[in-house]
């Protein structure tokens, strides 16, 4: 372990912090000795990308409200503004504290280092949805459309979960062709046993 750092070798499952945001990497934890059943560290891509989108949308909303308030235009009540600020400090601040320091590290990094930061991003989604539903859509038609989109989003979460479930929990043993179909990205290291 002490000499590995000095050599120009890289661990098979190491990754860079930029790979984490786009879910470009996976880690194989377990492979059944006789079948193709396996457990992979892979999250739900819909949640992963929704968390990234929530961070981006929150940042745009925050900057928009901040610029409008500098011009003495107050779009939302003071209590909602303070809640939005606290949400950003807790969740985007938590993401930054748990993610950005990895760019300064010179050690071997793995996908699981990103999980605390991802948790902060995921926790940003519900307050952002609530804020959008309460303050951005004034008419009932827009609120109902947004609610319908949330139902579609929730359904896509479930469908993606069911699709990736066999390699997340190691059950059941799949054929090599079925395993290949679960590889959404070429960089995912889904193990396929040669027969």
Automatic annotation (TrEMBL):
Biological source species: Hymenochirus boettgeri (Congo dwarf clawed frog)
Protein name, UniProt field: Protein O-mannosyl-transferase C-terminal four TM domain-containing protein
UniProt keyword list: Membrane, Transmembrane, Transmembrane helix
GO cellular component: endoplasmic reticulum
Molecular function, one GO term: dolichyl-phosphate-mannose-protein mannosyltransferase activity
Residue ranges of domain Protein O-mannosyl-transferase C-terminal four TM in the record: 7-188
InterPro entries with a match to the protein in the record: PMT-like, PMT_4TMC
Segments crossing the lipid bilayer: 46-67, 79-97, 109-129, 141-161
PANTHER family: DOLICHYL-PHOSPHATE-MANNOSE--PROTEIN MANNOSYLTRANSFERASE, PROTEIN O-MANNOSYL-TRANSFERASE 1
Keyword presence, Transmembrane helix: yes
Superkingdom to which the source organism belongs: Eukaryota
Signal sequence coordinates: none
């Amino acid at each position: 372990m002490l000499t590995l750092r000095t050599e120009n070798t890289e661990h098979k499952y190491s990754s860079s912090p930029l790979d984490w945001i786009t879910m470009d990497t996976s880690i194989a934890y377990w492979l059944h000795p006789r079948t193709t059943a396996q457990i992979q560290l892979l999250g739900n891509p819909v949640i992963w990308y929704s968390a990234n989108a929530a961070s981006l949308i929150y940042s745009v909303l925050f900057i928009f409200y901040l610029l409008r308030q500098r011009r003495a235009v107050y779009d939302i009540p003071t209590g909602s503004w303070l809640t939005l600020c606290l949400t950003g400090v807790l969740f985007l601040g938590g993401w930054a504290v748990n993610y950005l320091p990895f760019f300064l590290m010179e050690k071997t990094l793995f996908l699981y280092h990103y999980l605390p930061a991802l948790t902060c991003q995921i926790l940003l989604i519900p307050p952002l949805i609530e804020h959008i539903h309460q303050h951005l859509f004034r008419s009932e038609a827009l609120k109902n459309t947004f609610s319908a989109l949330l139902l579609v989003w929730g359904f896509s979460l479930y469908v993606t979960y069911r699709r990736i479930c066999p390699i997340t929990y190691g059950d059941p043993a799949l054929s090599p062709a079925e395993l290949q179909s679960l590889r959404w990205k070429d960089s995912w290291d889904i193990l396929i046993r040669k027969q």
